[in-house]
């Protein structure tokens, strides 16, 4: 099993954004030297959570010049917010800077506020994402594709610069819907999911659904014979379980609380009316909900604990059919704590391969 590092965005920037970017560079360099497979950076807009990450291509370009072997991936890129030509151009630059160390996980987007950047794309964002993913593959392969130009005419253009890699490694991001797992298999992309918010049995069923759909799907340009299942998990490895939970407990609870508040701010919520229900909770109820989520997550799905506890968790995820764990490290811990945890995790990474 591969282990990678994922940034997703804690909301504390009291030390300033410049200092936070310095932390990201330091952690990415350490992950590169310690042998991790990849660094994932997301796309987030106009939110407290994730405020450092408006453009994964831009940050990955910086990381490409600061690292040597680690892969640099968008986790995730909100496809309906962008013209596919812009995506092909930007990531071809990063691909060349990194000498072929890139990957992109595409998402449909979910928060209505993100679509300030493209309000007309919100309602049919799922259809747009599916259409543009196929188009992105064609552009990456060097195919001339027709678009409307400034004079209203149709013109065939080829994306430039040409990428270093012949194929663009693509993931589909899922928030948990079985339909998305199946769709990713049909499109023959890898898949980026998360352990949180579902039981072990539910996750096992979704992985089987994805594998079956992938095996039955026709070949796609640049797609490998088998897809990669990447699962995100909050990660902090300490000397003992007690120390890990003590150090990670406060930051993770605060992060979960901020994430719930962000969900409440979405006009439609995650599932239509969920945002309204969360928004109606009192502070005491919200605190109790966060504490419950934290305890449940510790029981299954996280990599928070001693090396032995995390070793067992990794073995369990491998048994489920997981190929890679994207270790979510920036949920509020200090950079020094994250770096210490990564050193311990590197030993587990070598064992897990």
Automatic annotation (TrEMBL):
Source organism per UniProt: Nonomuraea monospora
Domain of life: Bacteria
InterPro entries xrefs: Bact_Lucif_Oxidored, Biosynth_lucif-like_mOase_dom, Luciferase-like_dom, Luciferase-like_sf
Protein name per Swiss-Prot or TrEMBL: LLM class flavin-dependent oxidoreductase
Pfam families: Bac_luciferase
Luciferase-like domain mapped to chain residues: 1-323
